[in-house]
Amino acid sequence: MARNPMIKFSMFFGFCSLLSCKDTNTTQTEKKAAIAVEVVPVGQADIKEYLTFNGVSQYQKKENIRSNVTGYISWMKYKIGDAIRKGDTFATVRTKEQDALKEAVKLDSSLSKFISPLQIQSNATGVISVLNITQNDYVAEGDILATVIQPKSLVIQVNVPYEYGDFVRLGSICEIILQNEVSIVAKISAELPTIDPVAQSQTFLIALPDVQLPENLNVQVRTIYKEDKMAMSIPITALQTNELLTKYWVMKVVGDSLALIQPVKPSLRNDSLVKIEPSAEGLQRNDLVIIKGAYQMQDSTLVSITKK
After folding, report:
1. CA distances from 287 to 40, 262, 299 (A)
2. Most buried among 11, 217, 248, 288, using CB within 10 Å?
3. In a 3-state reduction of DSSP, which class is residue 283?
């Protein structure tokens, strides 16, 4: 019977030890490490959304140099890419009749004035883009010998679906982006009063008189679709969404240590920023949102702000 108090005391001591261990484990579990994140304040920015179309460069004014006589090309100095002015001699042509007179000139020198080659003059000022002849070629009257383009007539032709006609009109400002990423700001200078029956698109022209580009160059043309100069904005990297793109949220930091899920309604966006529609219970300007470290973060997560 003397052993019973000792046994009871041992059991009581063991029970207390178990309770003490449980409390220690619970305390250690509750102390979770804060997740390091980067944050930025909600700001204000001018956000533009663009409509982008494909365009192609073309020269509107092209003049053909034609032969005004039948014969053989006796002289020609021009090549493709050369500049030529209106009235310049493009080539000379000798006729079969002139070749026949060479023998007659030996008998009558007065005929010598008829054997000089006939001149073909350029009827336009510009750059030779097509050359159809070489020296000694035979040409007939009316043949096209060369094509001269006028650099000042350069335009960008762009086809715009009719549904966007309210955003692209005569005088609209647009941006032309070349393949080397050079950007040119210009205006819509003309519109054709017809619609493509298949694509249901209308052709617009953008004049570029002070720019030299090769013909048939593919470019991108973009114009402003929507704009908000005073948009409440956040970086796109702060925006999160579900798989169906039906819900959007950001992780808002309060008290510099606690991240809360904040539902938002995005609207306009560009390459780096997105506009957030303001609401009474939503984000406010200068609120801190996480831009790095918030992926799959749960609500009410402890965070530690990392300075950039």
Report:
1. 8, 11, 17
2. 288
3. coil
The answer to whether the pTM exceeds 0.70 is: no
User: With contact defined as beta carbons under 8 Å apart, do 47 and 228 qualify?
Assistant: yes
Residue 60: other Cβ atoms inside 10 A: 14
Grade residue 178 by pLDDT with cuts at 50, 70 and 90.
Answer: very high
- What band does 26 get if pLDDT is binned at 50, 70 and 90? very low
Please classify residue 248 by burial: count the beta carbons closer than 10 Å to its beta carbon, then call 0-12 exposed, 13-18 middle and 19+ buried.
Answer: middle
Say if residues 121 and 90 touch (Cβ distance below 8 Å): yes
Query: 280 vs 305, which has greater pLDDT?
Result: 305
Domains annotated for the chain, with CATH where assigned, are 35-48+229-305 (2.40.420.20), 51-59+152-228 (2.40.30.170), 63-149 (2.40.50.100)
Estimate to the nearest angstrom the gap between the alpha carbon of 262 and the chain centroid: 33
- How far apart are alpha carbons 207 and 216 in whole angstroms? 15
**Whats the size of the chain, residue-wise?**
308
